[in-house]
Design brief:
By secondary structure, the protein is of the alpha/beta class. The chain has helices at residues 19-29, 41-54, 74-82, 113-123, 150-167, 184-195, 211-219, 240-243, 279-290, 294-309, 312-316, and strands spanning 3-8, 31-36, 57-58, 136-142, 171-176, 202-204, 223-226, 251-253. The longest helix has 18 residues, at 150-167. Mean pLDDT is 86; it is low at 89-127 and 314-318. Bound molecules: zinc ion. Zinc ion binds at residues 138, 174, 205-206.
């Protein structure tokens, strides 16, 4: 059984102490390759560097929380990250110049097995050595936290949607409404509908919406990303009957780690750090709700993921991470 985590915030500081080890731990659990979520220009660049060295994949985009930092250079920077061989931070070599590359082990190339595997992947010139970001995002609207003014969120989102249409890249989308009013979903659907004709694929990541909102996503022919949110009896129960309404060909699985640790994996009720390896548990939970085996679910979602992101493992049979 093999799963791909379509959304892990691996550049988050929660992983500063063991970023490389996370890859191995996931691999041992049957999860990989990992797709690192880019949520700001800086993080996207770091994610791309790290992914290239370690045979992983990364998205590039600006999360609605960071929309207020969007400026007239942002689109060009994302465009450059999305093109194969495009400039990442530092030198673009395996040593990469990122703070994260050196994490804990002295040098990027020494010490951990993961670093070795990455070096091999890089040396072999396989998938990610000079790859660009495989999707645009995480982008969208978040009227729940409102960390950026809503008008700026809409502008930042629309610019990235336009870019995805131009570059013919899939979109990794985030949307969260607020109990205080103003429907993020309405604005979200409005922007996507305007450009839908020119867009390829899109995934509404960490879907937590209603039956009607799910319907709206499926009308746009969007994929649906389900996280461990669904495992939360309190917050996720409304999603259980909706799982069966997602066509098997449109379902994708993710952890959104380090966020959203399933409650049953948090001893004593204290929310700890989530990890990609936990995707096995999340998949098992979803499979049970769907009345299918976890192996079947893994097979279906693996295929969906490869198709959605157009991953090189599908085209060549090569596997940069050695999975
Ligand atoms: Zn999100």
């Amino acid at each position: 059984m093999r799963l791909i985590d379509i959304g892990v915030n691996l550049m988050n500081s929660a992983f500063d102490g063991d970023r490389e080890e996370q890859i191995l731990k996931a691999k041992k659990a049957g999860v990989g390759p990992l797709i690192i979520t880019g949520s700001s220009l800086e993080q996207s660049r770091a994610a791309l560097d790290f992914a290239r060295v370690h045979g992983l994949y990364a998205t590039a985009g600006v999360h609605p929380h960071n929309a207020r930092y969007w400026n007239k250079e942002s689109a060009a920077l994302i465009r450059s990250m999305a093109l194969p061989g495009g400039p990442a931070a530092g030198t673009g070599t395996a040593a990469g110049g990122t703070e994260t590359g050196a994490g804990g082990t002295g040098t990027a190339a020494a010490g951990t097995e993961a670093a070795d595997a990455g070096a091999v992947a890089g040396a072999a010139g396989t998938a990610t050595a000079d790859a660009g970001a495989i999707a645009l995002g995480e982008c969208g609207l978040d009227y729940d936290r409102d960390y950026s003014p809503r008008a700026e969120q809409r502008r930042c989102f629309e610019e990235q949607v336009k870019l995805a249409a131009e570059l013919k890249l899939p979109l990794f989308l985030h949307v969260r409404s607020s109990p205080r009013g103003g429907s993020a979903w309405e604005d979200f659907f409005g922007i996507l509908k305007t450009y839908r004709r020119d867009l390829t694929r899109m995934v509404v990541h960490c879907f937590t919406g209603s039956a009607g909102e799910l319907e709206g996503c499926l009308e746009l022919d969007a994929y649906i990303g389900i996280t461990g949110w669904v495992c939360d009896e309190r917050r996720g129960r409304h999603l259980w009957p909706l799982l069966g309404r997602i066509p098997a060909k449109r379902l994708l699985l993710e952890t959104d780690a380090p966020y959203l640790l399933p409650p049953s994996l948090s001893p004593g009720g204290r929310r700890g750090r989530n990890e990609s390896a936990n995707l096995v548990y999340i998949a098992g939970f979803i499979a049970q709700k769907l009345g299918k085996t976890v192996e079947t679910l893994a097979e279906e979602t693996f295929k969906n993921t490869v198709e959605f992101f157009n991953l090189k493992i599908a085209r060549t049979g090569e596997n940069p991470s050695g999975f």
